[in-house]
Amino acid sequence: MPPTGNEKENYNCILEIMNVAVCEGLREIFKQEWDKNYGATKGVWDDTRKSGNELYNMESTRRHAKPYLNFFQSGKRSEWDCSALFDAILYSNAIKKHLSPHVSNKVDELRKLRNELTHTIGSQHKISDVKFENAYKKVQNCFKVLKLSAADVEKILKSFKAKYVTSFRKMMYLCLTVFIAGLLSSASYYWFTHPMATKSVFRFRVLPTRPIHLVANRSQTVNAILEELHNLSIRNNGSLTYLYLSGNPGSGKSQLAGLVGERYGRRWSENTSFVMTLKGGSAHDILESYANFARRLDCTENDIGNIVNSNKTTTVMKIQSLKISIVKLLEDFKNKYTWLLIADNVVKLSEMSSFLPQLESDDWQGGQVLITTQDMSSVPSNSSLTVHLSVSQGMDPEESCEFLTDLSGLVGNHDLVSKVAK
């Protein structure tokens, strides 16, 4: 089947295939292997805590399982992401030794493809038609060998292709309407100054720019951040909350924020609408980011230009005007959907904080703000609405081992990898 016709849509499509269809396929593989080897002794896997405890007891002493133990113990495969599933199938005491070579090889092939998409291709957030075609065929081939249905894979591709074609047709229809209106009225051509009203949910993820070098997954730290965000949201019944992520230069704050943004809401909320990143280096950076944010919410280029290019207002006033426009666009979705705003690399927290959604404001309810900063002295103390996490210490030994395993491909040499990590 051909690509979607757009490089960014290609990337979003293959990412959804990995995060949805492949993830579901891995859940089937895990259950098949468990039932085949333990169905008669420990019982078939039934997604309950009883099954989870059986797996937990077998994996609790394994160092590399630590980031996933809570998920294993719950027994609910629907809560396991690709990282947890790859670990449970390829590296677990329970399953690894029983795997047939063809199953092990194809599951590992999917793991490597996911890492390539996340770490290499993901830095550009787009993928060429050729690379998309190769990745798509690889997934199809793996599913065929593993005897998994590829229906979900094909369904996702068809939905992306249909969305792209529909968007193109709408644009052509709009252009034709404007053209005909101009001819009939003998007036100058015009463009609509306001987008057509819509109740559809805004769904997009704009993440911090990834570095060109390989990025560690840092599963343990990412899981901890996601857990804190989840707890903040539950504890405050969906009110706007902040999580501050501080650390020294080079500690990986932006990379962690990007990894969190990729996975935000996928485990515990089906109502996540968007993840947006604001560059926090200066007021000018914030202004540009809010302009991009407004575009993502279908604010017209004319309205954005009138605000950004005005000679009568200051940068601060322009930022506030864009925020007001964004709030109006989000009004219909307030408290109905969750969203994450990443304020990345905020240099001076005291100067930039007023440009962010305010905790006491009713306009931004339902969302969360993740702030990365080196300005540790300005981070407020923890409260019911805010949490501060520091990553100044860098990667812990388990994350170092995980990174070295991905980097070297030494899947079955944990002892050697551990020695190198030390």
What does this structure look like?
- The chain is of the alpha/beta class and 422 residues long.
- It is built from 15 helices and 6 strands.
- The protein is globular and about 75 Å long.
- About 7% of the residues have low confidence.
- InterPro entries: P-loop_NTPase.
For the largest sheet, list the strands in their spatial order: 1-3-4-5-2-6
**Major sheet description:** 6 strands, parallel
**Got a strand count?**
6
Indicate how many domains the architecture comprises. Answer: 2
Number of helices: 15
The SSE order reads: HHHHHHHEHEHEHHHEHEEHH
> Would you tell me which CATH topology of the largest domain applies?
Rossmann fold
What percent of the residues sit in helical stretches (DSSP H or I)? 40-55%
CATH class of the largest domain, named Alpha Beta
What would a concise description of this structure say?
The chain is built from 15 helices and six strands.
Topology overview:
Blueprint: H1 7-38, H2 49-59, H3 69-74, H4 82-91, H5 101-120, H6 129-145, H7 151-185, E1 204-205, H8 219-235, E2 241-246, H9 253-263, E3 272-279, H10 283-296, H11 301-308, H12 315-330, E4 338-346, H13 349-352, E5 367-373, E6 386-390, H14 397-408, H15 414-421
Parallel strand pairs: 1-3, 2-5, 2-6, 3-4, 4-5
List the defining traits of the structure above.
P-loop_NTPase; Rossmann fold; 52% helix; alpha/beta; 2 domains; 422 residues; six-stranded parallel β-sheet; 9% strand
